[in-house]
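Example for tutorial group B:
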């Protein structure tokens, strides 16, 4: 899909971004995606994922159709042409997993497919403080490898596009960022936009991240990255190379219940519905990445690296439903289990629990039901409009506590 600025949209060039630290239109639901910090702030009322849900329109514009709610795979994982698991045959040193996302960004530049890659580096003073960049070289892309699990203003760098000479852009981002980006795509001074999406859930502010680390891991100051993984454990890597894992069920839920950003507690775009290509781990077996191609542009991106991948079909095993229902009640009561019991449950669930796509559905069900409850309690007036049709169908399969 090509897009170029049109004369009648010229007034947006004069729109002034909101001063950082001022009140953003989404208020406490703001995910700090960065759009309000650019001249595209004039479009935020329609573009913001937390002011206006537009999944069907976004999917149709990006992929040519919206998801089929009667197809279980599309109900959960969105519009798709292909879905499989993979890992780089030769992993990138220092990457969080094997480095598929970084390799895609590098190849997009090396082949001339794009002029720049929108990705997220980090502050020179703090590993977990995100710094969005328009990378113009492979080295800049590689410098941004490894996730930053904090809210990131990716779209503020759109401000740099006019006059930059960038006409073809690969944007890497999470769901709320991509929803806003798709909404303003036709007004951007680009000839082509490619979107590489990351599944995303439960981001935090930098202060919230510190609370999470201090309540969960043995040495919070040495953590270089972490991820909630398919073995129902959180995997931490420390600066000295040491790895540490903590069972999901051992989290200090009373302390952490309110640490996640309000935007994440009201989001239903876990699988990044608007991206051309999605790369994550949630629907794959442990050690592999889950890849979903949503449209021809996604396949065009995948073509850059597919020959370098060890590819396998997706699989699905187990039954998530009882675990999800029990989790709803445990989270709602903010239970904290003794670590010995958390470890025991973790071993049992790891052995007998859902795997592959069924693990992905477990994670989606758990977060959608939690978020629906949170919205209905904290924003009852907008809850039903904020929950999209596909999420309502999933949520209806479970018993939620009365509001």
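The residue assignment follows.
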């Amino acid at each position: 899909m090509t897009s170029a600025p049109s004369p009648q949209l010229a007034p947006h060039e004069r729109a002034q971004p909101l001063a950082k630290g001022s009140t953003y239109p989404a208020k406490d639901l703001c995910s700090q995606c960065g759009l309000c910090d650019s001249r595209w702030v004039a479009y935020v009322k329609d573009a913001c994922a937390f002011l206006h849900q537009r999944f069907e329109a976004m999917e149709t514009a990006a992929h040519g159709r919206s998801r089929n709610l009667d197809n279980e795979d599309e109900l959960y994982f969105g519009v798709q042409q292909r879905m499989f698991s993979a890992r780089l045959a030769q992993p990138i040193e220092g990457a969080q997993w094997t480095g598929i996302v970084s390799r895609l960004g590098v190849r997009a530049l090396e082949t001339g497919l794009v002029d720049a890659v929108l990705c997220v580096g980090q502050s020179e003073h703090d590993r977990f403080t995100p710094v969005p960049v328009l990378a113009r070289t492979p080295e800049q892309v590689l410098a941004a490898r490894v996730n930053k699990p904090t809210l990131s203003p990716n779209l503020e760098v759109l401000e740099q596009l006019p006059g930059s000479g960038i006409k073809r852009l690969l944007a890497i981002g999470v769901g709320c960022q991509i929803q806003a980006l798709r909404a303003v795509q036709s007004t951007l001074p680009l000839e082509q936009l490619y979107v590489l999406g990351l599944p995303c859930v439960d981001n935090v502010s930098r202060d919230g991240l510190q609370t999470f680390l201090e309540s969960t891991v043995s040495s919070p100051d040495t953590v270089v990255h972490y991820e909630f993984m398919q073995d129902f454990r959180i995997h931490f890597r420390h600066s000295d190379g040491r790895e540490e894992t903590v069972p999901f069920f051992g989290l200090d839920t009373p302390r952490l219940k309110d640490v996640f950003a309000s935007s994440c507690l009201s989001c239903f775009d876990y699988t990044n519905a608007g991206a051309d290509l999605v790369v994550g781990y949630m629907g794959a077996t442990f050690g592999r990445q889950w890849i979903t191609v949503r449209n021809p542009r996604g396949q065009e991106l995948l073509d850059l690296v597919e020959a370098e991948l060890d590819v396998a079909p997706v699989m699905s095993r187990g039954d998530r439903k009882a675990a999800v229902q029990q989790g709803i009640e445990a989270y709602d009561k903010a239970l904290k289990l003794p670590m010995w019991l958390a470890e025991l449950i973790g071993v049992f669930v790891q052995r007998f629990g859902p795997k592959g796509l069924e693990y992905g559905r477990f994670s989606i069900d758990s977060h959608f039901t939690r978020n629906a409850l949170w919205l209905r309690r904290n924003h009852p007036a907008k809850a039903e409009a904020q929950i999209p049709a596909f999420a309502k169908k999933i949520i209806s399969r479970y018993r939620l506590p009365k509001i």
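Confidence is low (pLDDT under 50) at residues 1-14. Compare this with the pattern of hydrophobic and polar residues in the output above.
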